[in-house]
Amino acid sequence: MRTLLLLSTVAILSAWAVKCKYDGQDLDNNQIIVVQNAFRIKCLTEDNGSWKTEIIGCVTPDGTEIDAGQKKEHGDKIHECVKSESGQVSLKESKGRMAACPGGQQNGEEWQEKSFKFRCGDGGVVKFIACVGQDGSVINAGETGKIGGFDVKCEQHANGTITMQAANDPKSYECKAKDGSMKKNGQEYVEGNFVRKCGDYGQGKIIGCFADNVGSTIGVNQNVTHGDVIYSCAKDGANYSFKTYSLKAN
């Protein structure tokens, strides 16, 4: 907020004065001048020869006149002409309702930063409005919704920190196997030639491979020989593979 100040009204009594004097100027009765490019001064004379100059208002940088005690909004700024009981006048400038936000966004404009959505509110104030999942799911601020099938809470805390986190204990979720059965957190289960372990948020992660003739799980990127067959469990990037090789001569 920007503020300009001007001292209170000056009053002088003189038997010969018929004009006001202000900063070296002679002013006629009711004449108004602008000083400091911000304040309007009026000359008032009396029949008894007394005179005074009175601050009657302010002038904004764009030339708009505002009476003392009033305010006007123009564009993205609010200007207020404040007069105290002691006569001191100040011109105060603040953001108007349509002011842009710090990032240049206009009033009412919405945008996304990473997983969070914001709106430019009145007075150029940034408002947090929602969380966004990788799948495009939107949860309004202060609410709980589903992202990827999980309950997620979108929240802005008193200190301004924004979080998007599981509404429930990550270990409380079960995993759904391909055969439709449900597995508890930490439980291992077989799907085809792969062994999975139910992890947090109900995510079944591959931890190895399965072969009928091998009594235990074949670890990822490990080979196990049983009889004349080599069983190979491998991971390449995000892909897993299970292969067998015969040791018998062709």
Structure description:
The strands form eight sheets. Strands 2, 5, 6, 7 and 8 form a five-stranded antiparallel sheet that branches. The chain has a four-stranded antiparallel sheet with strand order 1-11-10-9, with no helix packed on it. Strands 12-13-14-15 form a four-stranded antiparallel sheet, with no helix packed on it. It has strands at residues 2-6, 10-12, 20-22, 25-27, 32-35, 39-45, 51-59, 65-67, 71-74, 77-83, 89-95, 110-113, 116-120, 126-132, 138-140, 144-147, 150-156, 162-166, 175-176, 182-183, 188-191, 194-198, 204-209, 218-219, 222-226, 229-236, 239-246. It is 0% helix and 53% strand. It contains no helices and 27 strands. The chain has 250 residues and is mainly beta. It has three domains: 20-94, no CATH class; 109-166, no CATH class; 175-246, no CATH class. A hairpin with a 2-residue loop joins strand 12 and strand 13 (116-120).
Largest sheet: 5 strands, antiparallel
**Strand count:** 27
Outline the low-pLDDT stretches: none
From the spread of the alpha carbons, the general shape counts as: rod-shaped
Number of domains: 3
Distance between the termini: 89 Å
What share of the residues lie within helices? Answer: under 10%
Radius of gyration: 39 Å
The arrangement of helices and strands along the chain is: EEEEEEEEEEEEEEEEEEEEEEEEEEE
Helix vs. strand class: mainly beta
Helical stretch tally: 0
- Multimeric organization: single chain
Taking all residues together, what is the mean pLDDT?
89
Fraction in beta strands: over 45%
